[in-house]
Q: What sequence folds into this?
């Protein structure tokens, strides 16, 4: 059989699943956000759900908060992950343990970490109790509000906890497959450690970091259970708000939930677009 | 566990095994015309999927072990308890199914329900109605009592069956607080004198919502003018005062009112860990259970308010599209029985007040009821009942919840 | 590799390493302690009363925790197996061939790793209701394929891009059937990819919450749903026990496959080679 047919058949099952489940789900969500659902007799698409969403102050606050969470978590995780990978490249006492724990962390679901963070960082949590033990605070109210707070500090901490190993493992694997030859050459030509890093290593690992960061940003933007456990209830993270609207007994809220879901999807699509454009150009350049 | 085998079989026989292997009893009208024995026969060997709030493992255990045991042993019916974090989830399932045309093979056979959720189901045509007379234990229910015949002001009219009674009560830690506030007015003063030590869950959490209603009654100077149908003018007048009270309270609340606990359990955690010093619950017996389960410090003491707290009856309802109605009827009958209501009333099981008239049960059941001694840390149900305030009609409640979200929650 | 780093830098590394070790384990500690506690209130650093009640409850028949464990394992294994079955051919196509429209196909397969589940599942939910897939284990397995399949394809395409089809051609020319060729030649070569991809797919399915919540409708109660319910209900002791049980299978699978995650196997590098 020809190559074209072979490729088609090889790709068929995967594409079928992706097109039907993923793109199909998006398409139906899109239709319902326009109140267009011929199956149950709604044949007049309208913008009422979008109008309701975009005139709702809560939506903007929620969007801003969620963007802040995703952006901050991604930046901090990426930077620290590169640092962690640099650390783990060389051997030192405990390196094996750190490596192992990094990989172990990958297997721990976000939900467990989030609950653990709650127990650690709430105003009556483990750190607060330690502070009380050392008489640094008089009562729970004196401990800084790190969970259920408007800056989502607890949420960001939790994402950073999980994403540093995720990005770190990818970057480390990249570094190891790139090898150290380029850097040795640069050092032997007189470049400082920082210059070597900045101009030799960083550009080489950048594509990997970027693709991992895009995944992390999208995940932290669209995750539900972590802000549900650690977040304040107003404004809530966008996925929490969308779920709330979807499960509201008032059925008119459902298309609004779909509209929010589409907004989330659009933002992710934007991320993909910028990533593709920017990373291809960088790699070629 | 047999369940593993079941899962394995289900997975490998994807196209086979019809749901509900035995008599599909989706036709409610047909059931209504039968005798009770015929209904029980139809139910035998089948199953019933009961969706109820799953946040209390005492209740979960009572349902799974006690009720599930009775159903299996006496009627050969399998009880599948499905835990929810909010009753509205089950209502949404039925709603979604009706929307998608699933009319007689619904996934929900019974819901533990009351209030707005009941109104949604009754008004949306989502409930199976008009059958309650065929339940033998229906005779134990006092339908002449308006608090039972009406669910938050909406007439029941045979669409649901009572299960339990609840009355709102407060609790405090005797180690931390000398004298707790015993009226809403005192509470507001107390909160201001103890900044950061009080909060309440954000409506529409069930408990947060009923707390706000207490403040609403207080702002109205009493509940009398509020009973009856929704009155927009009256609502605007009272709610304006209520929002002012609650907004004035915010700077003195936990986190200065910048955020509210998302649920009653979250608030109970804050109370247990000294972040706040007062807690409350629509199920006063939960104080005793929480102490036993290590959720509350043992020095917690429940109490009621001198000017009364709100009480309600809660029910079980069968959705219109349940395919296991016969089994659901058998389950409802068991729930109403003297034996089941007695077990439920035991403080080490649940401590919930019976929804039936104890005097109408068998001599044995009555003797059992007489042996019940409530947990020492729990506000006794009969004391609370002496100062019971009625619930408002569901339309008031939705308006209050919505008003809170717009005027206080933001 | 030069070992001429100063003592200062080496101690810095060791210190940072120690900090990292502590930091990585930290959130799991209170969960573990809670599972053995009977009431643990502020300001106690450790519980005053210890008890095995939470574990007894978790291991009991009536609590449904063990049933949930088997159910979650089953769902994740099924989703992983399906991803492998479908991901190997797709990875082969993307890794070994160049063709018109390849970038678009890659993007389409990659999209679910970037677009969050909530954006998609609300739309799928209503369709699944009409198809009767709602509240079923099959429906949940299907919907888990959305996030797991892309990871599998990604890893497999990375493996296949380093793969030399010459060996297959040789085997065929020696008279081996396609099946035998696949089994004895192809499979061993791509095994590292299957293991790493399978690991990621399993973990992605293992930690799914919102997809299972919406499509399973509470009837398919996987471990994360159970854990979430107990955590929000404030039963911290049971939460701790379930949390410990929940992380165990992932750890076990990791221990079995650890050697494939670092180094030049190319499998993990596949993530950076989109």
A:
């Amino acid at each position: 059989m020809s190559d074209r047919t072979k490729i088609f058949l090889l790709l068929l099952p995967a594409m079928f699943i992706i097109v039907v489940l993923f793109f199909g789900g998006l398409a139906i969500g899109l239709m319902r956000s326009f109140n267009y659902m011929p199956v149950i007799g709604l044949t007049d698409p309208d913008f009422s759900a979008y109008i309701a969403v975009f005139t709702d102050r809560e939506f903007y606050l929620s969007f801003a908060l969620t963007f802040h969470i995703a952006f901050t978590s991604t930046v901090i995780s990426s930077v620290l992950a590169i640092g962690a990978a640099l650390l783990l490249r060389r051997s030192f006492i405990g390196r094996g343990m750190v490596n192992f724990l990094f990989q172990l962390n990958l297997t721990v679901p976000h939900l467990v970490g989030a609950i653990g963070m709650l127990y650690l960082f709430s105003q009556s949590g483990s750190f607060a109790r330690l502070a009380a033990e050392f008489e640094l605070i008089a009562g729970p109210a004196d401990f800084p509000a790190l969970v259920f707070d408007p800056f989502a500090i607890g949420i960001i901490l939790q994402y950073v906890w999980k994403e540093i190993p995720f990005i770190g493992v990818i970057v480390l694997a990249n570094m190891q497959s790139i090898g150290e030859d380029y850097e040795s050459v640069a050092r032997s030509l007189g470049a400082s450690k920082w210059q070597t890093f900045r101009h030799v290593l960083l550009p080489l690992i950048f594509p990997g970091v970027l693709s991992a960061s895009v995944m992390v940003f999208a995940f932290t933007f669209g995750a539900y259970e972590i802000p549900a456990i650690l977040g304040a209830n107003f404004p809530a993270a966008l996925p929490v708000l969308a779920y709330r609207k979807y499960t509201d007994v008032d059925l008119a809220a459902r298309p609004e939930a779909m509209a929010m879901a589409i907004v989330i999807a659009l933002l992710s699509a934007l991320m993909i677009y910028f990533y593709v454009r920017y990373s291809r150009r960088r790699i070629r350049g | 566990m047999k369940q593993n085998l079941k899962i394995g079989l289900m997975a490998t026989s994807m196209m086979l095994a019809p749901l509900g292997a035995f008599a599909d009893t989706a036709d409610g009208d047909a059931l209504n015309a039968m005798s009770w024995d015929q209904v029980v026969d139809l139910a035998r060997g089948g199953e019933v999927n009961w969706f109820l709030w799953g946040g209390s493992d005492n209740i979960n255990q009572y349902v799974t072990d006690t009720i599930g045991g009775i159903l299996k042993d006496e009627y050969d019916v399998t009880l599948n308890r499905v835990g929810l974090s909010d009753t509205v989830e089950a209502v949404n399932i039925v709603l979604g199914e009706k929307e998608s045309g699933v009319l007689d093979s619904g996934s929900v056979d019974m819901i533990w329900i009351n209030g707005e959720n009941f109104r949604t189901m009754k008004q949306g045509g989502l409930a199976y109605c008009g059958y309650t007379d065929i339940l033998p234990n229906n005779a134990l229910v006092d339908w002449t009592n308006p608090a039972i015949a009406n669910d938050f002001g909406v007439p029941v009219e045979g669409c649901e069956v009572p299960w339990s009674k609840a009355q709102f009560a407060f609790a405090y830690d005797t180690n931390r607080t000398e004298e707790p506030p015993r009226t809403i007015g005192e509470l507001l003063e107390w909160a201001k004198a103890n900044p950061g030590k009080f909060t309440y869950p954000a409506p529409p959490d069930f408990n947060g919502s009923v707390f706000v209603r207490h403040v609403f009654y207080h702002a109205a100077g009493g509940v009398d003018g509020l009973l009856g149908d929704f009155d927009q003018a009256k609502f605007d007048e009272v709610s304006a005062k209520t929002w002012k009270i609650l907004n004035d309270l915010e700077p003195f609340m936990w986190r200065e009112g910048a955020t509210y606990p998302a649920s009653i359990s979250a608030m109970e955690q804050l109370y247990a860990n000294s972040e706040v010093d007062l807690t409350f619950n629509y199920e006063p017996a939960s104080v005793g259970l929480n102490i036993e389960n290590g959720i509350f410090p043992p020095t917690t003491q429940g109490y009621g308010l001198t000017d009364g707290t709100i009480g309600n009856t809660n029910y079980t309802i069968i959705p219109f599209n349940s395919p296991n109605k016969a089994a659901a009827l058998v389950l409802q009958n068991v729930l109403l029985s003297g034996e089941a209501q007695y077990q439920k009333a035991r403080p080490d099981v649940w401590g919930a007040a019976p929804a039936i008239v104890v005097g109408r049960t068998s001599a044995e059941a009555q003797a059992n009821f007489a042996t019940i001694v409530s947990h020492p840390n729990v506000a006794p149900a009969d004391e609370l009942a002496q100062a019971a305030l009625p619930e408002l009609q569901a339309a008031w409640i939705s308006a209050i919840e919505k008003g809170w979200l717009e005027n206080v929650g933001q | 590799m030069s070992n001429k780093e100063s003592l200062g830098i080496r101690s810095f590394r060791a210190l940072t390493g120690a900090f990292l070790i502590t930091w990585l384990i930290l959130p799991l500690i209170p969960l573990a302690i809670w599972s053995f506690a009977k009431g643990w209130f502020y300001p106690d650093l450790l519980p005053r009363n210890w008890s095995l009640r939470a574990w007894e409850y978790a291991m009991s028949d009536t609590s449904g925790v063990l049933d949930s464990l088997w159910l979650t394992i089953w769902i994740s294994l099924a989703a992983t197996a399906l991803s492998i079955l479908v991901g190997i051919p797709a990875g082969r196509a993307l890794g070994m061939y160049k063709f018109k429209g390849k970038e678009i196909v890659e993007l389409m397969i990659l999209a679910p790793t970037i677009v969050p589940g909530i954006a998609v599942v609300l739309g799928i939910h209503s369709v699944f209701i009409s198809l009767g897939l709602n509240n079923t284990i099959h429906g949940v397995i299907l919907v888990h394929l959305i996030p797991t399949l892309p990871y599998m394809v990604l890893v497999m395409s990375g493996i296949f891009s380093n793969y030399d089809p010459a060996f297959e051609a040789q085997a065929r020319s020696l008279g081996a059937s396609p099946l035998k060729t696949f089994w004895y030649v192809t499979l061993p070569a791509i095994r590292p990819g299957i293991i790493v991809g399978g690991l990621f797919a399993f973990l992605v399915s293992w930690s799914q919450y919102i997809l299972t919540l919406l499509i399973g409708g509470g009837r398919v109660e996987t471990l994360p749903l159970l854990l979430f319910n107990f955590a929000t209900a404030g039963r911290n002791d049971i939460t701790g026990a379930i949390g410990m049980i929940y992380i165990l299978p992932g750890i076990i699978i990791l221990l079995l496959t650890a050697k494939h995650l670092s180094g030049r196997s190319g499998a993990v590098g596949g993530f950076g080679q989109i």
Q: What stands out?
A: The interface with chain A takes residues 86, 88-89, 91-92, 95, 99-101, 116-117, 120, 196, 202, 254-255, 258-262, 270, 273-275, 409-410 of chain B (CB under 8 Å). Residues 57-75 of chain B form the longest helix (19 residues). The longest strand of chain B covers residues 309-317. The two ends of chain B are 49 Å apart (CA to CA).
